Amino acid sequence: MGGIGSGGAREGAGRKTVDGEPRTKISVTLPTWLLNLIRDEADRRKVSTSQLITEFLTKGLER
Fold first, then answer.
1. Is the pTM above the cut of 0.70?
2. Is 50 within a domain?
3. How many domains does the chain have?
4. With the CA atoms of 39, 42, 46 and 47 taken in that order, what torsion angle do they form, in degrees rounded to the nearest 10?
5. For residue 55, which of 47, 63, 29 has the smallest C-alpha distance?
6. Is the residue at 3 inside a domain?
7. Looking at the domain assignment, is residue 12 inside a domain?
8. Is 54 helix (H, G, I), strand (E, B) or coil?
9. Which range marks the domain in which residue 52 is found?
């Protein structure tokens, strides 16, 4: 157990990003019906809930 090279972060380890952009986790409170609507739409589009919310926010903030 242990020894040289054990423990710590390793380059290339962990989950790969979808679009090469680093992610930050946030917490929001939504009505249950709205989250269900978002999840259903994400399933329909075959994308993650996070990807769909990112798309909604990006499009909504464009001028």
1. no
2. yes
3. 1
4. -110
5. 47
6. no
7. no
8. helix
9. 32-62
58 vs 2, which has greater pLDDT? 58
The answer to whether residues 30 and 36 touch, using CB atoms and an 8 Å cutoff, is: no
B/e letters for 37-54, b = 16+ CB within 10 Å, e = fewer, are eeeeebeeeeeeeeebbb
Tokens of 61: 């903030």
Report helix angle 32-45 to 49-61, nearest 10.
Answer: 100
The structure tokens listed for 30 are: 């939504």
pLDDT in tens, 1-48: 556 666 676 777 777 777 788 888 999 999 999 999 999 999 999 999
Q: Which two tokens stand for residue 39?
A: 């999840």
Joined tokens for residue 1: 């157990």
Distance CA 24, CA 62 (A): 21
Nearest to 56 by CA among 31, 38, 43: 38
